[in-house]
Structures are given as structure tokens and as C-alpha cells.
Amino acid sequence: MHKEQRYRMFAESVIEAVLFHEGGTILDANKAAESIFRIPAEQMVGRQTIEFIAEGYRADVLRRIRNHIQTPYEVIGRREDGTFLEMEVYPKEVTFQGQTLRVAVMRDISDRKKVERILEREKNAIARQRDIIQSILQASNEAFVLTESNGSVLFMNVHARRLLDLPGIAPNKMQERIPLLSTFRPRDRTEMLKKIDLLLDGSAREVSMRFSIPQPNNRDEQYYEMYGTGMDTKRQIGMDSGFLFVFRNRTEEERMDQIKNELVSTVSHELRTPLSSLSGYIELMLARDLSPEKRERYLKTMAKEAKRLTDLLNDFLDIQRMEDGNQEYKKDHFVLNDLVRDVVERFRETSNHSIHFDDADEVLHLVADQDRIEQVIINLLSNAIKYSPHHHEVEVRVRKERTQAHVSIQDFGIGIPEHAFEELFKKFYRVDNSDTRQIGGTGLGLSICKEIIESHGGSIEVESSVGVGSTFTFTLDLAEETL
């Protein structure tokens, strides 16, 4: 009797629920079972264990009992009041007086599972944040390198690998990798290594430098800026300190600086010439008593130079509006043949060149901004005359091909080298040779033509040979009347 009391005391003192059952029929239960399932122990006796298991889990529990499986498992329990709890079950079979009894020790793990789910959500949130950060770093145009305090690389994004990776060699430290980069100039490698050493030994909190990398096949150089700084990363990745190196590609900025410098140079040069001419003629007319013939000639020259100034300023304003996206185009309905013919006739009156006009066999209707299309024709025809100083013939052709109109302007002048074709329609670009330098110009006309034609859904192309001449052709969709 003392032993039975002692074992009963042991059973009642444990915090886990203990059920004794035979084939699933409950024989006895401890006080913890009363607390967990919210029912007196004596009312549990004689009932089936699966009554205290959620319905969806009962088949698995019965299978375990029938097959005498004694491995621990987790299950959803069902209290007497209909509420549910998460349980961990430790089954054990014992033999007593020839009977095989099953002891089920059950622990309420609802709170633990709740904490685990919270931790899992936090873990997933951190993983998502990490993935987002890595995606941002990988998608960034800058090259990022994160190192430990001794320079050992922890992370490099894809741009950093393109810039700093070495085929067949993988030095782990930044100070070992930089001296081996053959694409970098020797002086840049030396300076960069010095700055990295200053950062690693604590002599500087941040460093920066600019450098350029030559490109194969005589392409333009790539310009970069390197920035390095110390950072406290202990909270993020469990290390005491580290360094972040950022390599930013400045090639586009460098190109814009060059364009800005070219603009200042071009504007100052191109505006100075007509202004000087105007100033000179005005001084002559004020200082001298001129004959009516000379006065008329001077006034015509001044009017010509004033128009040249106006055209230059209009080009600059046009290119600015186009870059800002503020250029507006009207939708005029007009006949392309008539527009080209009018422009040709005007040039015939003012030019020494012989202009041959080859018109299309049928009337070609367009829906476009007539003034802007006229500007393109004038620009191309003006260039044809300007860049053929020793050959006084120009051919203008209008033709129809299926649903499109083609306008071609051909000269027999100095021509354009093939290597210049890609750059020809860019702002301020001018072919660099002695002939073009003597002729002058802003390098804006063709870029304006390209913008106007492409804004109308068309295209513009060039064919040229040095010393033979050039043909510029633009293509636009015809209006429905033509089709």
C-alpha cells in the first residue's frame, strides 16, 4: 500500500499528463491530465484515448496503437470543452500480470509551438530582407564589396565580380586581389592599394579615388570612382568590424562632361563668327560714307549672318526641348511631294549648286508636323550643299515603297568614313578631319533630324564613302489616303 501511494505520488507530481490504457481504453490518468484536458481523471477512465485527439489525427494515433509503435510524435489534442492544444506524445508499452498496457506521457507544447512559429516568421522575414538587400545590391549599377577587418572578402555583387575577378585565381583579400588586376593601369593599382592599406590599418576612416580602365578594340575608356569606408557590422553578421568598397561607373558622367565642354566650345566658336561679321559691317556702315550698292551688299550679308545666328540659337533651343521631353509635334495633313519641291525651289534660288529633283509617280500624303519635317529636309539639303564644296550637284528623290515614303538627299562631296556612322547622329559629334574643320558647324543638325523623324515613328539612315559622297534617307509611314 505504501509503494502504491509512493508511485501515485510520483505520477501526480509530474507536469506531463500520463494516461494508462489498454488497446486505447483509458485505465487511469494523473492530475496533470485533468489540467491539460480539463476533465476529472475519474471521468476519463473507460473512455477511448482518441476522444481526446483532434479528429483529423485519430486515424494515425490508432495506427500507432495497433502496430505497437513507441516512437515519440506530435499531435493536436482535443479538450473536453472542445478547444484544441498541441501535444508531444511519448508512448511506452509495459506488461503487467500478463496484460500489455500502454503508457502515454503527453506534454502541452502549445506555448513552445507558438514561440517557434513567431521565430520562424522572424527568420523568414530576416531571410526576405536579406534576399531583398542582395537583390538590390545585385541589381545596382555600382560594384559592392564587403570585407572583414583584415580585408577578407565576405560579399561581392555581380558588378564587382566583373570588375575585380581574376580568371583562374581567387585571392580572398582585397589587398591581394588589386595588384593582380591586369585591366587596371599600374599607377591606379598602386594608388588603390595604398588607399586600401590606409583604411585597413586605421590611418583613414574613408578613402576615395578616380581611375579609368582602357577597353579592347580601341573603344572608349570606362571611368570609375572607388569609395571605401569602415563599418560596424557586428549587429548584422556577428563580426566586430569590416569595410565596404563601392566602385561606381562614371563613364556616362564623364561623357556628359565632355559634351558640356564641347557645347561651350562649339557655342562660343559658332556664335563668335556671325557676331564678329555683324559687328564689323555695322562699324563700316557707321564709319564710312558708302555707296548705295555697297550699303545694300553689306545689309544682305548682315541679314544672312543674323539668320545664321537665329538658326544656331533655334538648334540649341530645339535640342534642349527634345532632351527635356517638352518638344510638341502637331498633326498636319499635307502632301510630301509638294513640301520637298518647295524646299528644293528655295535652295535653287539661293545656292550655286544644281539640285535635281526626282519626284514620286504618285501623290504621297502624310499626317505629321509639317514644319518639323520641312526642318529635316532643309537641314539635310543644307548639309549636302555645305559638304560638297567642289562638286556642285545634289540629287533629291521621293519614292513610295509599300506603306512608306522615302526621301533621299545625295551629294557627291567629301563623304563620311564608315567608323563615324555610329556617332554621326549624336549631339555635337563632327567628323574630325581637315575638310570638316574648315567647313565648321555645331554637330546638332543630324541629332535634331533623328529626334524629329523617330518621334514620328520613322527612321533615318546614311550611306557614304570618303571622296565619293553621302546619301541620307528618312522613312515615314504614309497616311491612309495614299494607301
Q: How would you sum up this structure, described in words?
A:
The protein starts with a helix and ends in a 6-residue tail after the last strand. Residues 234-239 have low confidence and may be disordered. The chain is elongated. Helix 10 (251-287) runs antiparallel to helix 11, helix 12 packs parallel to helix 13 and helix 13 packs antiparallel against helix 15. The protein has helices at residues 2-13, 31-37, 41-44, 58-66, 110-139, 158-164, 174-177, 186-200, 234-237, 251-287, 292-324, 336-350, 370-386, 434-439, 445-455, and strands at residues 17-22, 25-29, 73-78, 84-96, 99-108, 143-148, 153-156, 206-213, 222-231, 242-249, 332-335, 354-358, 365-368, 393-401, 404-411, 459-465, 469-477. The strands form 4 sheets. The chain has a 5-stranded antiparallel beta sheet. It has a 5-stranded antiparallel beta sheet with strand order 7-6-10-9-8, with helices on both faces. It is built from 15 helices and 17 strands. By secondary structure, it is an alpha+beta fold. It folds into 4 domains: 2-108, PAS domain (Beta-Lactamase), CATH 3.30.450.20; 140-249, 2-Layer Sandwich (Beta-Lactamase), CATH 3.30.450.20; 255-324, Helix Hairpins (Orthogonal Bundle); 332-477, Histidine kinase-like ATPase, C-terminal domain (Heat Shock Protein 90).
Notable characteristics:
Helix Hairpins; 4 domains; 483 residues; Beta-Lactamase; 5-stranded antiparallel sheet; 15 helices; single chain; alpha+beta
Highest CATH level, the class of the largest domain:
Alpha Beta
**Biggest β-sheet description:** 5 strands, antiparallel
Radius of gyration from the alpha-carbon trace, in angstroms: 43 Å
Mean pLDDT: 86
Share of helix, binned: 40-55%
Q: How many structural domains does the protein architecture include?
A: 4
Which assembly state applies to the chains in this document?
Answer: single chain
Which structural class matches the secondary elements?
Answer: alpha+beta
The percentage of residues in β strands lies in 25-35%
Q: Which word captures the global form? A: elongated
Stated plainly, the CATH topology of the largest domain is called Heat Shock Protein 90
Distance between the termini: 113 Å
